[in-house]
């Protein structure tokens, strides 16, 4: 989600994470409503080709991401023991990615029409959902990193935690994200500018800049700092453990899950930091940082990056829950063959394994002792 002031009217214009660029960043109009392209006239061949190519890429990424995240949710539902300790957090991340990817058709349609066609209710709901999923993902990543850090530093405490406890934490992350997204749904309204329907928030440019800065702090800077501190603490604990153990007994601890969680966090940052840098640069820089055509290209790239995060995440989620394949492929114990009833037939327990009847020990061999010879 991004908001950018429209230089021509003085009003801030609502923009999505994947909103198209309308102007150079000096008057960045990266709106969910769409608008005219940078250097070219509206409806030009260059704009049509760019919008068509971007729409095709976004639709393909959306389809792949929706299938992947649905697959993760189905696996977690059918195999509760798959990634049992991380189940609530992985489900929260997959749900956030799925909801965000469902907005792809609306964004593609807006790119093509260059205005908003989904009414006042859609104008309020879609940007709020965008903010909700972004913050929910970020807060869940903090919980996931804290869980892995505690699993290394305080394993007994983590073992006592129940699934309900983790589910409550994930739900709390969504409620906090909802509180941050609520002002967007209350302030946005549908309006017309230049004969086009657009979504406008009810605040001025200064308040808009402050709101953008707040969103960057709550979705990226704050959670990113918390995650960095958690992993720094883990690195220090690993270093102390290596120094305290004898040289021959030093073995690197199992870090597979930690590395996967770190990969998910780094992918989130890599996909969203360029978007936020681009948006904040337009807010705090007076002149255009790039020509109009280059600005439009950068906006297209940041759009694909944000949706690409939700498209690639299911691959990492699958690695986190890969033990479900062992549960699915685990062979059942073979049934014991039936024996005719009788006194000599051994009893069979519930597991189907025969318990042999105890046999008395054989009698000792009695041999006469050899006569001793006297010399």
From TrEMBL:
Q: Which parts pass through the membrane?
A: 49-76, 88-113, 125-146, 167-190, 210-232, 257-277, 297-320
The compartments listed are:
Cell membrane
Its record classes its membrane topology as:
Multi-pass membrane protein
Compositional bias segments (type: Pro residues):
333-346, 357-367
Which parts of this chain are annotated as the region Disordered? 14-43, 328-375
**Bias (Polar residues):** 24-36
Q: Kindly give the InterPro entries that the UniProt entry links to this protein.
A: GPCR_Rhodpsn (IPR000276), GPCR_Rhodpsn_7TM (IPR017452), Urot_II_rcpt (IPR000670)
Which residue numbers delimit the G-protein coupled receptors family 1 profile domain?
68-317
Sorted alphabetically, the keyword list is: Cell membrane, Disulfide bond, G-protein coupled receptor, Glycoprotein, Membrane, Receptor, Transducer, Transmembrane, Transmembrane helix
Identify the Gene3D superfamilies for this entry: Rhodopsin 7-helix transmembrane proteins
State the family it belongs to.
Answer: Belongs to the G-protein coupled receptor 1 family.
- Explain the purpose of this protein: High affinity receptor for urotensin-2 and urotensin-2B. The activity of this receptor is mediated by a G-protein that activate a phosphatidylinositol-calcium second messenger system.
Name by which UniProt lists this protein? Urotensin-2 receptor
Tell me which species this is from. Answer: Pipistrellus nathusii
Q: What taxonomic lineage is listed for the species of origin?
A: Eukaryota, Metazoa, Chordata, Craniata, Vertebrata
